Amino acid sequence: MNKNSNYKRKLSIIIHILGWALFGLVIFVLSPLSAGVERPIAFWLKQSLNFSLLISIFYINFFYLIPKVLFKNKIPLFLIINLIAGLAYVGLLIAYDDWTKMPELMHKAFRPDVPYTPRPRNYYWDISQLLIFYMAVGISTSIASVQKWQSEEELRIEQKQQQINSELTYLKAQINPHFFFNTLNNIYSLTNIDVEKAKTALLKLSRMMRYVLYETEKTHTLLSKEIDFIKDFIELMRLRLSSKVNLEIEIPEKFEDASIAPMLILPFIENCFKHGISSQMESKISISLHVDQKKLILTTKNGIFKSNENTPEGNASGIGLQNTKRRLDLLYGNNYELDILDENPENEYHVNLKINL
Fold first, then answer.
1. Which residues of 52-77 are buried (b: 16+ CB within 10 A; e: fewer)?
2. Would the pLDDT of 314 be above 50?
3. What is the rounded CA–CA span in Å between residue 340 and residue 300?
4. Angstrom distance (rounded) from CA 15 to CA 63
5. For residues 332 and 355, is the Cβ–Cβ distance under 8 A?
6. By C-alpha distance, which of 20, 110, 102 is closest to 62?
7. Is residue 72 part of a domain?
8. Between the CA atoms of 1, 327, 339 and 293, what dihedral angle is there, to the nearest 10 degrees?
9. In a domain, 92, yes or no
10. Distance between terminal CA atoms of the chain?
11. Model-level pTM?
């Protein structure tokens, strides 16, 4: 970051030097020389004075007046200062002409054989010099304004990125304990029913914990790892299901791999098992996941059993879905679609999620 900043600073200095060198060469050297007339030393001293004054006002305006006056919303004061400075600039050039008798020297240079006769001053050249002065002021103001806008934009983007990172860290911290709370409850129930199934569940849980510990530290992970994680979760849930639950799973064995935010799909899958299972009634859970041309499509359907909402798991489920929606907004913006239908004659909970990976 520091190397990049130093490089930009050096490049900016080089551009300023080259810009002023080109400007001074064209306006104050080549233009007078193009007339083909040898001019007095006093004229070249005036050109040097003129060029030095323009450089001085440019950087005084750039480093002091603009940040200290203009950017402090003191616009009238900024305009008044530059108006007075412009008049003083022209006045100094006129005083120099009077002191060095510049009109007479220039007359002798261009018409050496014609006697010099004093004439009223031609203010056309003074107006031209004033316009050049305000051109320098305008350029310095424009450059400073653009740099300020770029700096503020970079700061805004950096702050937004920091906000996204902090929010994602917070959201994942909420989702992960929530997931383990439910899974450990499932394994605890299995220990009273089937020890072998409980051992299998612990092995799957350990593999899932490795995923959570290492992959969720990253902003993105491979879709293949995320889907393997989902498969393990579903198999873990399947161990405790009774014969009254009809579980339909459609997840492809082979698909085009891509990048995805870790544990982004889990809350929707988890929600099916929290609300879609009844201990007394027939229930059905349908989960379909497809990947087509870098687009992930997740569709879930499950019944809604109000009794589950009074359990600790049911009360916590809303947190996981809310956080996941927030993560989708932060990470994918307009590159995802989420449709949730929870009011229908079939009393089913439908989720249709599409993500452009």
1. ebbeebbeebbeebbeebbeeeeeee
2. no
3. 10
4. 17
5. yes
6. 20
7. yes
8. 40
9. yes
10. 29
11. 0.54
